[in-house]
Amino acid sequence: xxxxxxxxxxxxxxxxxxxxxxxxxxxxxxxxxxxxxxxxxxxxxxxxxxxxxxxxxxxxxxxxxxxxxxxxxxxxxxxxxxxxxxxxxxxxxxxxxxx
Length: 99
What we know:
Blueprint lengths: L3 E4 L1 H18 L2 H20 L5 E2 L6 E6 L3 E7 L3 E9 L10
Parallel strand pairs: 1-5
Antiparallel strand pairs: 2-3, 3-4, 4-5
Helix pairs in contact: 1-2
C-alpha cells in the first residue's frame, strides 16, 4: 500500500516556479502540464517505494530522486506518509536541510 504524500509549502512553491519557468521558456502550456504530471508520477512512485531514492550524504534522513535527470525531489519517509521537502533544478545548489 502506498504511503500518503505530503507536499510542503516550499516544495509546492518550487514546483509552481519550475512549471511556470518551463511554460515561459517553451511558450507552450502543454510542456508545463507534461512536467507536472511527470513530477506527480514520481511522487506516486516514492509513495509505493519510499526507499527508491538515494540517501543524502548530509547526515539527515532525507532522500532524493530525480525526475527527467533534471529535477531533484528531496523527501523523507515518515511512519505513515512521505514528506516532499523541496523540488529543485539539479544544477541549483541548495543549502543543507535541517535534520
